[in-house]
TrEMBL record:
InterPro entries: NDUFB8. This is NADH-ubiquinone oxidoreductase ashi subunit. One of its GO terms (cellular component) is mitochondrion. Keywords: Membrane, Transmembrane, Transmembrane helix, Ubiquinone. PANTHER family: NADH DEHYDROGENASE [UBIQUINONE] 1 BETA SUBCOMPLEX SUBUNIT 8, MITOCHONDRIAL, NADH-UBIQUINONE OXIDOREDUCTASE ASHI SUBUNIT. It comes from Ornithodoros erraticus (European soft tick). The chain crosses the membrane at residues 121-145. It comes from the Eukaryota.
Length: 174
């Protein structure tokens, strides 16, 4: 696009006609899912559209509030739980060209959640460890305020906030 625009600007006679550069893109409607397929022919066409065989194609339920039209309801398989040694077309996301992606594929990348593998510790153990650690920190802070340990002894008496002394008043001067 930049080359076409530069060629237009550098060519002679560009004062007589305006310079335009066209960017060839698809329309948004080409990327949007269609309506829910209600017949077998529409289901087969939708399966072909998403590169699936009709036996594997299963759309989201039509009465579901999170219905996405004819987009396939794919299983939630995160990128971290896929084989790391397979030769992928796009290794960063562990995907191959033309394979359908989940509707929320940005959640299941390598840096995000992995809900397919079994965790090393149970949820109860994780929460209990967190609460014990934070409780220990809170206890140390409370003990530090209750029993202060100064670095050096106090050299002079306290000068501010002594009992019975008023350093200022709002009464008018006499």
């Amino acid at each position: 696009m930049a080359g076409q625009l530069g060629r237009c600007l550098l060519s002679k006679g560009n004062l007589h006609r305006p310079c335009f550069a066209r960017a060839a893109h698809y329309w948004n409607k080409d990327w949007c899912p269609s309506k829910f397929p209600d017949t077998a022919e529409k289901r087969a066409a939708a399966a072909k559209k998403y590169g699936m065989i009709p036996e594997d194609y299963k759309p989201f339920p039509d009465n579901d509030p999170s219905s996405y039209g004819d987009y396939p309801n794919l299983p939630e398989i995160s990128a971290e739980s896929r084989d790391p040694f397979e030769s992928y077309d796009f290794p960063y996301l562990r995907r191959n060209y033309g394979e359908p992606v989940h509707i929320q594929a940005d959640i299941y990348t390598l840096q995000r959640i992995d809900n397919n593998t079994r965790q090393k510790y149970s949820l109860f153990t994780q929460v209990a460890t967190f609460l014990l650690f934070m409780g220990g920190l809170l206890g140390a802070v409370i003990l530090g305020y209750k029993y202060p340990m100064p670095i050096s002894p106090q050299v002079a008496p306290r000068q501010l906030y002594q009992k019975g002394e008023v350093h200022y008043t709002f009464e008018p001067a006499e």
